[in-house]
Amino acid sequence: METVNIHQAKTHLSRLMEKVANGESFIFAKAGKPIGRLVPPDEAEKPKKRRIGFMEGEIVVPDDFDTMMADEIEEMFYGDSLFPR
What we know:
This protein is an alpha+beta fold. The chain has a domain at about 1-40: YefM-like fold. The chain is about 30% helix and about 20% strand. It contains three helices and three strands. It has a three-stranded mixed sheet with strand order 1-2-3. The model has no long low-confidence stretch (mean pLDDT about 85).
């Protein structure tokens, strides 16, 4: 894989893109240190697929989930205040 500095890449971008279209890959460097890669789409890293449902049966949600602790929450908001509801 060829290393190309940033100035050279900006100057010859269309030429580099033609080479990438033909299957070549490049490493971009700044002051000699690699900072990125230019690769053809088929070589690009594909995002990992999410595993939907992999914890099925491991977590139990109570039937009263949306109302649980309602009394305690109401007490926190209203408590024994001077303002009646």
